Amino acid sequence: MPAGEGRVGHRLRGLAGSRVRRLRDSGLPVLQCALAAGLAYLVARDVVGHPVPFFAPIACVLVLGVGVTNRLRRSVELAVGVSVGVAVGDLIVVLIGPGWWQISVVVGLALLAALLFDVGALLLNQAAVSAVLVATLQPPGTTAAFSRWIDTLIGAAIGLATAATLPSHPLTRARRGLSALLTELEAVLAGTADALEVGDRAAAAAVLERARATQGRVDALSDAVDAGFEITTIAPLRRRHRGELARLRTAVRPVDLALRNARVLARRAHAAIRDGERPDPELVAVLRRLAGDTSVLRGELTGGESTDGARSALLDTIGTLPERGGGYSADVVLAQIQSMLVDLLTAAGTDREDAVAATTSRRLDGGETADRHDPDDPTDP
After folding, report:
1. Which of 68, 163, 192, 375 ranks highest by number of CB atoms within 10 Å?
2. Domain count, the chain
3. Domain extent for 247
4. pTM here?
5. Nearest Cα to Cα of residue 156 among 47, 43, 28, 29
6. What count of other Cβ atoms lies within 10 Å of the Cβ of residue 342?
7. Over the stretch 319-343, which tens digit does the pLDDT of each residue have?
């Protein structure tokens, strides 16, 4: 199969996999959002007595719709934003009536009111949009005046209560995110070893492209861990998971550094093949060992187990490092392997200074390599 077709196939498989994961992760929150929206409408209509309480389900969906994939703080911002916007819109339109200049006044005052809360653009935009809806959907002097604000409060309250009382498991997204990252790292290492062994430049280029596509997942993992901590804060039954979340949070930064080093490693491996270097066979063997160590670390970290097995395996791998890589670029690959050993030991719970000390018998300790190289800098060959 041509290299181009292989890369397209990899992209399509990755896209399909990401969509399946998204549906799997969001199935329960979507169901919660749908049921809560119906409940908000029911409460506003049958309990409070508003005949057409359309703002109640709207506010509920806005709060929980964001909460499906993002953090609770943003849901709270939206709840405040829509409530402020509707309140300002109702009040101002009742006082000065509808019209083009009244819309300008409503939007300006809604934004100023939201600014008093010292929040981000999300709340500000929602406040302005809500104010415009109130000022244009129904004229003042009708039974809708201020009842829309009450409906908004009902919907927002039900949305936040649902998010607080029926939260997702705080570890699920964090474990899946970390597992996906370490799986990608393992694949990059194994793929680089295969490309170096046979001198396949196209395969090395495909591995490099794969390595460069991981940064978005790093950001998503960090967000998932923070969201997990928020869930343990608002849900007492989930607080027992804070220790495990703390361990995962500690692993995020070193795994990020390991992936950055992997990008440099993949680029230098591609350069080694391009320049006709003959890497030391021991270098290829070490890459495969490190891929296996990464798999062990993934299983232990995401399974909530002790990482003693991963630490032991990584320390054994340090002892197999060759003295030279077999060429200029291959030597850089060796340096990146040493850096990644430090990063992965740190992710496994080893103090970073101790991890660096474990490699001091080698030519490079690699402890800062990820900070010296920008893996996406086109001027770094």
Report:
1. 192
2. 2
3. 172-372
4. 0.64
5. 43
6. 30
7. 899 988 888 899 999 999 999 999 9
